[in-house]
From TrEMBL:
The keyword Transit peptide does not apply. CDD domains: DPBB_EXPA_N. The keyword Signal applies. Residues 183-263 form the Expansin-like CBD domain. It comes from Cinchona calisaya. This is Expansin. It is a peripheral membrane protein. It comes from the Eukaryota. It is found in: Secreted, Cell wall; Membrane. GO terms for cellular component: membrane. GO terms for biological process: anatomical structure morphogenesis; cell wall organization. Pfam families: DPBB_1, Expansin_C.
Length: 268
């Protein structure tokens, strides 16, 4: 009985929130929508927050973006439950989120746009409806506190939200952060526009053909190949849109581990 009531309550919240969104006519005012990737339908989820007002507690994360201030993501970020995280293939995706049907929602239910930068892991010691918010099959956003405070009073702790995928609008080209060594190249792909995500990555040295890189974890891909002393190009396919872009001569022949190299192309 309790489970049926909760399902009914969730359905009613979803229906009411969608009606309000339809009436408002302000789903994404001012948001520049590229032509290729369109927003998804609104869906119901819940959101909490982690870290403090500075966002310092959200640095790093399972996607491997490191310092989110220096890599351009800032504090408009969220950790995703494993259902959304999709083994790291959701890293870089952008979501619009707004508080729904809670007394803690700010007036007018403003939305904010966040980038997926981390995983909110399951907490099997807690019930999914009482502390285990990120347990499967729950769809949940653990937002940075600054992002959460744009949609609701932080004292709420947890609020129902409406969310949808939206295009990621980025400045400049794709960015490639190098780790590894001359025989093993580990690349983190950042600043991804459009769908925001990566499905496949290939690298080409000035003396090689295209080499397929395997998905390591999060936003990182690896190739076991001797590539030192060669200029490097990359071929990138989006997980969501299946688009492929070619980024030629991204890194010079004297490339170094620990540096980030930027392409002149990006997804739209």
């Amino acid at each position: 009985m309790a489970s049926s009531f909760l399902q009914f309550l969730s359905s009613m919240i979803l229906l009411i929130a969608l009606m309000k969104l339809s009436i408002s006519g302000k789903l994404a005012d001012g948001y520049n929508l590229p032509a290729v990737f369109k927003p998804s339908p609104w869906q119901l989820a819940h959101a909490t927050f982690y870290g403090d007002e500075t966002g310092s507690g959200t640095m790093g994360g399972a996607c491997g973006y490191g310092n989110l201030f220096t890599t351009g993501y800032g504090t408009d970020t969220a950790a995703l439950s494993s259902v959304l995280f999709n083994n790291g293939y959701a890293c870089g995706q952008c979501f619009q989120i707004r508080c729904a049907e809670s007394p803690y929602c700010f007036r007018g239910s403003p939305f904010t746009t966040v980038t997926a930068t981390n995983l909110c892991p399951p907490n099997w010691a807690e019930d999914s409806n009482n502390g285990g918010w990120c347990n499967p099959p729950r769809t949940h956003f653990d937002m940075s506190k600054p992002a959460f405070m744009k949609i609701a009073d932080w004292k709420a702790g947890i609020v129902p939200v409406m969310y949808r995928r939206v295009p990621c609008v980025r400045k400049g080209g794709l960015q490639f952060y190098f780790q590894g060594n001359g025989y093993w190249l580990l690349v983190y792909v950042m600043n991804v526009g459009g769908g925001g995500d990566i499905a496949n990555l290939w690298v080409q040295g000035s003396n090689t053909g295209w080499i397929s890189m395997s998905h390591n974890w999060g936003a990182s891909y690896q190739a076991f190949a001797t590539l030192s002393g060669q200029a490097l190009s990359f071929k990138v396919t989006s997980y969501t849109t299946k688009q492929t872009v070619l980024a030629y001569n991204v890194a010079p022949s004297d490339w170094q581990i620990g540096l980030t190299y930027q392409a002149t192309v990006n997804f739209k």
